[in-house]
Amino acid sequence: MKHKHIFVGCTAMALCLAGGSHAQTATEQSASDSLALTEIVVTAQRQSESLQQVPIAVNAVTAEALAARGIADSMSLEVAVPNLTLTQNGVSITPFLRGVGSNQSNPNDEASVATYIDGIYIPSVTGNIFRYNNIERIEVLKGPQGTLFGRNATGGVIQIVTRDPETEPLFQGDIGYGKYDTIEASAYATTGLGANLAADLSVVYARNGDGYGHDINRDADIFKRNELGLRSKILWTAGERTEIRLSADYSRLKSTGTDYQLAEGVIGVDGVTSWPGKRKTNTDWKNTGDNEVYGGSLRIDHDFDFARFVSLTGYRHVDGDFHLDQDATPTPIVRADINQFAESWSQEFQLLAPSGSAIDWLLGAYYFNADYAYTPLRIEGFGAAPFTTLDLYGSQNTESLSAYGQATIPLTESTGLTFGLRYTTEDQKTKGSIVGDGVVVLPEDLTHQKQNFKKLTWRVALDHDFSDDILGYLSYNRGIKSGGFNMINADTPGYNPEILDAFEAGLKTQLFDRRVRFNIAAFFYKYKDIQVFNITGGGAVLTTNAAKAEVKGIDIDAAWRVTNELTLSGGLGVLDSEYTDFPDATYTPPSPLDGPQTTIDATGNDLIYAPKVSGNVALDYAMPTDVGTFNLNGTLSFRDKVYVSAANRLAIPGYTVVNASLGWTSTSEKFGVKLWARNLFDKDYYLNRTEQALGDIQFLAPPRTFGVTFSVKTR
């Protein structure tokens, strides 16, 4: 009832403000025209539309906002999006949106919140840690997108849209230096290659050479990173009706890995080692990560008389080599050398309604084929006994085909009805083996398994324009997350898809001559066959289906252009989540000395990574002067406590983080300089805490980092 009252109150406030805005005089309206917020165009429904006309809860963050808020990579996006929680698990990012997500980290464990770049699906969570370059905007679609985006969009979609090249030559570059020997540099260049051909190239480089932690046993610096990213696109306007875009990208991330430490109060599996201190580890093996990702895409747009045609072809490849001291002690108990591989091809065809059509419709077909593998995962130390090395091989092939369609039918001039269906069929097969000291322990021919599923997903929505600036909508959506196999436990059964039914009511408003944007959505989820991930003794991982759950909550997104110089923006997320049926959840004691893993009844517990309250507030102030424009930005983001397992024992405490920057741009806009600070007040908060049979492990986010960046722009 509390959430209902919040929603009703906020909705009433928005409608009252709207009524006030229509009462302005013509003189007042003319004076405030220049203060209107910039319109944001999104592709949440696979075509370009105004954010305020899309009956979906969407947070859109432009390239300018990303730069101002210090959001430089995929790990920091939650700063700008309420109800989005990003946890770093090893060298992968696992997004949770409105309490829906997956904390798995096997190469075949695709996320419940799907990531797309320019319409191409990024299946591997190991391939989604990267620095942003050549970005036009990022759209976060909340709630299941099972019709237009399909499988693995149960929680929502993170859609990254890159810039198109231009025929007029342009160069932008910046280089910055900060604490911990931090270097950040980027460059973007675009030019025409002919009358109808343009190309661009974007490069990003980042490193922190000193690291910001120390391993006391090995006397070595930790939390060091070195990253390079390249992206290029060619745009060919083949005629008045045809555009062809060819893109390629490459990134390499080398780091000391995710440097886990034992949590406070935990005695390690060696019976001696305990918490080593803040941002310190006490290990016998260097944690390292070497992640290489590349891919390409081809997009063809052609406008027929009867429809618009789109073809999207994508390829992704990920190679990862990670070394992890999983027990986090100076005793060689479980040393994991994790070699992962992921490769995927996708092809999508779309037919969209022609411009000016009374009915807005879309038909599509999608093919996806992916191979995932451990090549192998090697265990050394006492955990490999009776062998000195234990090699776990596993692979999975996934082949998926789907057909979908969606149409919005105008019932009246101001009311539309949307109905969409998607039918997905998927075949999966797996095999694996175990080799100890070169001797086959589990042969491959004993592990061959296959499974198939066929699922129907849908969307039904009713939207109504109360005025040109007020849109209300009701929707019902079903989404699925693909099943899979436990590749390094190749003789265990596969797990089934998750299913989520979502009911949502939303209101999108533009007030006071569009100086204020206020969007609110209330939602209720029914969630079943939830995939549950556990780390067992010896470091083994196992995913099973268990539990039913319910989630209800509110999303608010707002912006206010106070003056020509000052803009305030922010968002708020409220969640109430619980497992409604989970009688056999795994309970992992803090330390292996406290006993073995057992099962408990987690019914009534909170979902993992579902903060009750989250949000952000941002201030942007631009002051023009005779010598240039000075820009001040301050961003505050906050997250409530979240639990890392269904047992609700170990939690990541809530935290508040402030980023700030002060910049100057010359009157010609050719030169600039910016002073920046991240985690301005040096708050200690965790990027990850994990329950495992070897003892609770964790690592902190970076401490306060500050520096200066110089930029240049020529055209």
User: What's the multimeric state?
Assistant: single chain
Q: What integer is the average pLDDT? A: 90
Q: Strand content of the residues, in percent?
A: over 45%
Biggest sheet architecture? 22 strands, antiparallel, barrel
How much helical structure, as a percent, in the residues? under 10%
Compute the gyration radius: what is it? Answer: 25 Å
Uncertain parts: 1-32
What is the tally of beta strands? 43
Termini separation: 56 Å
Q: Indicate the structural class.
A: mainly beta
Q: Tally the helices.
A: 3
Indicate the overall shape: globular
Helices, strands, pairings?
Layout: H1 2-22, H2 26-32, E1 41-42, E2 49-50, E3 58-62, H3 63-68, E4 84-89, E5 92-97, E6 100-101, E7 113-117, E8 120-122, E9 135-142, E10 156-162, E11 170-178, E12 182-194, E13 197-208, E14 213-215, E15 220-222, E16 225-239, E17 242-255, E18 261-262, E19 280-281, E20 288-303, E21 308-325, E22 335-352, E23 360-380, E24 389-410, E25 415-436, E26 439-442, E27 449-467, E28 470-481, E29 498-511, E30 516-535, E31 541-561, E32 566-581, E33 585-587, E34 598-600, E35 613-625, E36 628-639, E37 642-643, E38 651-652, E39 655-665, E40 671-678, E41 686-690, E42 697-700, E43 705-714
Parallel strand pairs: 7-10, 14-19
Antiparallel strand pairs: 1-2, 3-9, 4-5, 5-6, 7-8, 9-10, 11-12, 11-43, 12-13, 13-16, 14-15, 16-17, 17-20, 18-42, 20-21, 21-22, 22-23, 23-24, 24-25, 25-26, 25-27, 27-28, 28-29, 29-30, 30-31, 31-32, 32-35, 33-34, 35-36, 36-39, 37-38, 39-40, 40-43, 41-42
